[in-house]
């Protein structure tokens, strides 16, 4: 599989630092972040489904098994594996069903997946959430980690909320507070999110 990382640079970090000095200090301390992206849209969609409600470490394990089993992750290989084959990789029956539904939708043209490249973020989310088991978070992960959209921040992501609470010393985060920060980060909210994930993952005394 092609190895690619989410591309960003001085323009984004300088902007975020100017808009939010607290985040800027974290950016300076942490340094550049390399997060892999999956250019193939169907492969990325399957990866996002696999990652629903599990840790990054658990996803890495399941994903390795899935890639070993399927070789290339395509609608054809997913359908050929079937529910039993997918579950054998550590997926729940529900997630296996979602992946099979997505594979069928791409194969029969119900989901013209390559057209997502030309759609707005809102249109991509609307298109993908029409699929069984694909919610807003799953669509947002595809926007970030396949389409590399610059201004995506997922409220439904526990790591994002945890990172915000740690960064700003909050016990809890309201939706209104989240939206205020999100507006502050725009149009580079995705890069802010990369740092929030990193902050959430660090040991508290680190």
Describe this structure in words.
This protein has 206 residues and is mostly helical. The protein folds into 2 domains: 4-35 and 152-201, Endonuclease Iii, domain 2 (Orthogonal Bundle); 40-145, Hypothetical protein, domain 2 (Endonuclease III, domain 1, Orthogonal Bundle). Helices cover 61% and strands 2% of the residues. It has helices spanning 10-19, 21-30, 41-50, 56-70, 75-87, 93-107, 121-128, 136-145, 158-168, 175-185, 189-201; strands at 4-5, 36-37. The mean pLDDT is 95.
CATH first level of the largest domain: which class? Mainly Alpha
Low-confidence stretches: none
Q: Report the strand count.
A: 2
Largest sheet: 2 strands, antiparallel
Q: Please name the fourth-level CATH homologous superfamily of the largest domain.
A: Hypothetical protein, domain 2
**Number of domains as seen in the coordinates:** 2
Write the element-wise H/E pattern from the N-terminal end onward.
Answer: EHHEHHHHHHHHH
Strand content: under 5%
Strand order of the largest sheet: 1-2
Shape category: globular
**By helix and strand content, what is the structural category?**
mainly alpha
The termini sit apart by 34 Å
Percent of residues in helices: 55-70%
CATH architecture of the largest domain: Orthogonal Bundle
Question: At the third CATH level, what is the topology name of the largest domain?
Answer: Endonuclease III, domain 1
**Mean pLDDT over the residues:** 95
Radius of gyration of CA atoms, rounded to a whole number: 18 Å
The count of helical stretches stands at 11
């Amino acid at each position: 599989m092609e190895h690619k990382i989410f591309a960003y640079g001085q323009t984004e970090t300088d902007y975020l630092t100017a808009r939010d000095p607290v985040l800027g200090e974290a950016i300076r301390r942490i340094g550049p972040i390399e997060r892999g992206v999956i250019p193939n849209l169907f492969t990325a969609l399957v990866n996002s489904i696999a990652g629903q409600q599990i840790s990054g470490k658990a996803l890495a394990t399941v994903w390795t098994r899935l890639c070993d089993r399927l070789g290339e992750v395509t609608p054809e290989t997913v359908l050929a594996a079937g529910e039993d084959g997918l579950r054998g990789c550590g997926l729940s029956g529900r997630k296996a069903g979602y992946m099979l539904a997505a594979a069928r939708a791409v194969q029969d043209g119900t989901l013209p997946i390559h057209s997502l490249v030309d759609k707005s973020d809102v249109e991509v989310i609307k298109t993908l959430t029409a699929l069984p088991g694909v919610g807003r978070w799953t669509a947002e992960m595809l926007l970030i980690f396949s389409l590399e959209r610059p201004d995506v921040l997922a409220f439904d992501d526990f790591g994002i909320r945890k990172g915000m609470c740690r960064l700003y010393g909050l016990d809890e985060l309201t939706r209104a507070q989240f939206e205020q920060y999100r507006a502050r980060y725009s149009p580079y909210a995705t890069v802010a999110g990369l740092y929030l994930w990193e902050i959430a993952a660090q040991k508290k005394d680190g």
